[in-house]
Amino acid sequence: AADQINLIPQDFFAELCEQIIQHLNHKIPGVNTAELCQRIQTSGIEINIGDLAKIANILSFLFSTAARNNLSTEELITALGSAVSTLPKHALQVIRHVWNEQGSSISVSEDARNMATLGQFVDMKWKLGVAMSSDTCRSLKYPYVTVTLTVADPSGQITDKSFEMTIPQFKNFFRQFKEMASVLETV
């Protein structure tokens, strides 16, 4: 991981750390590693999204563990111990700065920890489509609904999950949402 961290410029690494802190403070639903990875690649740095996601998970674990143990900035840097020699200097400076500025703001209540194990719904998009034909069938005219759910998994990684439904499946889906809405109105 230290080799991959070394590839990330200081400004992008700082942005990643800031997003992780915001996620841990429940200000944002997760860290959009796909978008950040694309911006890093656009700047000419060769890194893949899997490596960036691993770095984000490591940093998230580091910050949440430090918050749970109420570590000061110096205690955190000392706790990194042997990693200090392998981590790039710019990464240590960013970790030190971010933790010094915002580390004490991380709340780690029991409710927040339990909620974090589930993941979080971020957004939903849908579109209506019609399959006109295929190579095996000349005239389908088959309507369908494509739904894309954006979710933040427990580690804070934001991903899109897409699925298609027939019209009867969508009507059932819609009916269930209406039931949820009516139950929520009584709360």
UniProtKB/TrEMBL annotation:
This is COMM domain-containing protein 6. The gene is Commd6. It holds the Pfam family COMM_domain. InterPro entries: COMM (IPR017920), COMMD4/6/7/8 (IPR047155). Scaffold protein in the commander complex that is essential for endosomal recycling of transmembrane cargos; the commander complex is composed of the CCC subcomplex and the retriever subcomplex. May modulate activity of cullin-RING E3 ubiquitin ligase (CRL) complexes. Down-regulates activation of NF-kappa-B. Inhibits TNF-induced NFKB1 activation. PROSITE patterns: COMM. GO terms for molecular function: NF-kappaB binding. Belongs to the COMM domain-containing protein 6 family. It comes from Calyptomena viridis.
